[in-house]
Fold:
Amino acid sequence: MPLPVLFILITVVIDAMGIGLILPVMPDLIRAVEGGSLANAALWGGLLATIFAVMQFLFGPLIGAVSDSRGRRPVLLLALAVMALDYLLMAVAHTIWLLILGRIIGGITAATQSTGAAYMADISKPEEKSANFGLIGAAFGVGFVIGPLIGGLLGVWGVRAPFYAAAILSALNFTFGWFILPETVTDRIRRPFRWSRANPAGALRHIAALPGLGRLLTVSFVYAIAFFVYPAVWAYFGQARFGWGPGMIGLSLGAFGVGIAIVQGLLIRPIIARFGERNTVIFGLSLDVVTFLFLGLVSNGWLALALTPLTALGSVAGPALQGIMSRTAADNQQGELQGVLTGVNAIATIIAPLLMTQTFWLFTASTAPIYLPGAPFLLAAGLVAVCIAVFAATRPSSATLQ
Structure:
């Protein structure tokens, strides 16, 4: 495997590890800082995630435009350096306002995965893009295997220990990238920086004008809202429905990560080769509807864990959809496209944490009309069904526009 590809995959692994490290302890950290009940901690958790997403929305297209103009390398390295500082800030925070500041900084610099995807697009042939985006998904899954496991174990030593570990990992990754990462933006594909395309509205307007991408961006947007149910409420859902602690929540997220890594690292290539990108998207979305419905109603934790392979198999939809969109955009628009996708997904994650945690609160608080911790997953199932309908009605051009 070429070193640049290896670095991108390691970057995504460590990025996912950083996320997974802190997920199992976030409910306890928020309660330690702010006090209150688990339901109230879920509301604060939703607010923190939304603030992070607002910053991604505002700065994602700018970062994508800068990477098309100045190169992927400086964007990736700067993001990794500031990410390490952000985790340190979260580790020492003793007020909710410092946690909020940390999410503002982290959201602005959350460019590693989107810029990494643009880097992967730069070095991939058109027919290889979906499968290579699958490698990024697999790397994310590997990180999610390791991260929650370590986070759950470190949580025994205190709710702040995982944040220190995430900071160290980010700093090490920055050092590795400094020495081995070459630049892929050459004069052939370099695009001059323009403020008119570096803001969310301008970038979205240019990308959505490409054939079929308007509806595909809509599918990506709604799907992101639905899929965000996992990071938004899983830790709270696991405690409320199954009585899980940080260790078991970490193990369950780790099992999900193993499934994602296997599906996107090993199975997505033969699945796309056999069924094509379009049918792969429909197949994955349909599986998501089934699994979300099941999680919404299940009351046995072991049954939820047994569903993990089917849940992971549904993840083939994301890389296939991303591959269709990447092949529609020109070579000098890959950073812009990934920036727009970051922005679109950020809008979704502005909405999703509040929507999912409010739904969880509505059906778990003492005033709940019915106790149903799985209600957010039932909502997610309905949203993915909408995605299937919109995607089925879309016939985008697969030709790369120059």
Observations:
- The longest helix spans residues 246-297.
- DSSP finds 18 helices and no strands in the chain.
- Confidence is low (pLDDT under 50) at residues 398-402.
